[in-house]
Protein: Amidase domain-containing protein
Amino acid sequence: VSAALKQGRVTPTELCQRCLSLIKKTKFLNAYITVSEEVALKQAEESEKRYKKGHSLGDLDGIPVAVKDNFSTAGIETTCASNMLKGYVPPYNATVVQKLLDQGALLMGKTNLDEFAMGSGSTDGIFGPVKNPWSYSKQYKEKRKQKSHGENEDSHWLITGGSSGGSAAAVSAFTCFAALGSDTGGSTRNPAAHCGVVGLKPSYGLVSRHGLIPLVNSMDVPGILTRCVDDAAIVLGILAGHDPKDSTTIQDPVKPFTLPNLTDMSKLCIGIPKEYLTPELSSEVQSLWSKAANLFESEGAKVIEVSLPHTSYSIVCYHVLCTSEVASNMARFDGLEYGHRCDIDVSTEAMYAATRREGFNDVVRGRILSGNFFLLKENYENYFVKAQKVRRLIARDFVNVFNSGVDVLLTPTTLSEAVPHTEFIREDNRTRSAQDDLFTQAVNMAGLPAVSVPMALSSQGLPIGLQFIGRAFCDQQLLTVAKWFEKQVQFPVIQLQELMDDCSSVFENEKLASVSLK
Structure:
C-alpha cells in the first residue's frame, strides 16, 4: 500500500477514511477503546501535502496504524483498560509512538487489552472482551454450519488471545496495517497466533520501553503486529535503537531491517525443543509443528531435537518474578498524582485503600497480593531470589542451545487454536495465563527475539501459528527465516464476507488484491 501511495493510486486521506469506515463497521469486535478520527485525518492531510511535493518520509508515511492502550499518547486518553486510569491523558508520547508519528504514520486509535495487560484472552478489561474477527469469517462459519444444529451463532464468538488482543484484531480485520502491542510473557505472539497475523517480540533492549506503562520492567518489550513478516521488519527498523530515556536500550546504532531471501538452506540449523511436546498440546498443532520441521528438512536445512532442561520450572519462576515486579510497579497508582481517586477523606491510608480497591480489578489486586507476599522479608530469599537464579538457568539453556550451532528454534505459539469465549471464562485468569504462556514466557525471561507466524487453518477453519525464537539481537536472521517460512506455507487471507465491499476497496492496491476476500 506504501507503493500505491507513492504512485498516487490512493491518497493518505482516502486510505484513512476507508480504515475509519472499517473501524465503524467492525465496532462489534471491540478492538478499539479510543478512535482518534480527527487526529488521523489531520495527519493524513499533512501526509498528502508531503506526497504532493514529492517529500514522502518513507514507507510508513500515510499508513494507518493502531497502538495498544498501555502506551502513552500525548493528548489522547490512555486507560490500560482500567478504572484506575480512566480519563487519564498523558502529556507525552511513548518513544515508539513518537517514532511512528515522525515517519508520518496515521494513528487510528488505541486498542483494547486485558486490564494493565494482565491476561491472555483480552477479556478482563473494563471495556469488555475483544472478539476475534475469525469468529465471523467465511472459513469458520462454513465449518460451524456442518457441526452446529440451530445453535445461537453469536454465542460462539472466539477470544483473540491476549493481552494485545485489540491490536491483533485491528490488524486482522483490516482496520490498520500495523499495530503496537506489548509482550511480557507472550502478549503479542499469543493473540497473533489466534488472529492469523504476524506477532513479533523483539530482543529485550532493541526497542525503547519509555512511555510503555510498565508491567514487568525486566521482561516488557513493545511488540509489533502486522499481516506479513516484511511489514514487521519495516516497523522494527523504525522503532529499534538507543533511547536516552530508557537505559536498557542498546547503545549501538541500528541499521534498517531489510530481509534478504533465503537461498542456501543447507547452512541453516533449526532446533526443536523436546520439552515443548507437552500432553496439553492439541494434536492439530503438534501435527503442523512436525510438518513445519519436515518442510525445513526437505529444503536442505538441518533439523535437530534440542533440550531446554529447565523448561518445567519456567511457569512458576515467571509467576514469582512477574507478580513481584507488578506489586512494585502498581504502587504508583495511589490516587494522589494521576488517575482515579476515591471520595473517602477520613485519612490518607483510607483514601489509598479505597482508591486501589475501586481502581483495580480482581486479577490486578491478586497479582499485587502475590507479589508483595514473595517480597516479604521472610520470603524474599526463598521465592524472589530463587526465581532469579532459575531465570538465569533458563536463559543459560537457550545460550547453550544457540552455542551448539542452532540458528533458530521452532516451537508452537499456543496449545490450540482460539477457543469460544464461553469456554475460556470457565478457568480463572491465573490458570489460563499459565497454560497460554507455556511456550512464550521463557523467551521474555531470556530477553530473546521471537515471532509467531500463521501457518494454516485448523479443521475448525481457525488460524494456527508457530513460533520462531532467535539468538539475542539476531532479530534480522530470525525474521529472514520467518519470511521464508511464510512464503512456503501461503497462509490464506481471512474472508469477512460482510465487509467485502469495504475491504476489497482498501486492498485493491495491495499484492493480496487477487485473493483477498474473494
User: Anything to note?
Assistant: The domain at 1-264+448-507 is CATH 3.90.1300.10 (Amidase signature (AS) enzymes). The first strand starts at residue 32 and ends at 35.
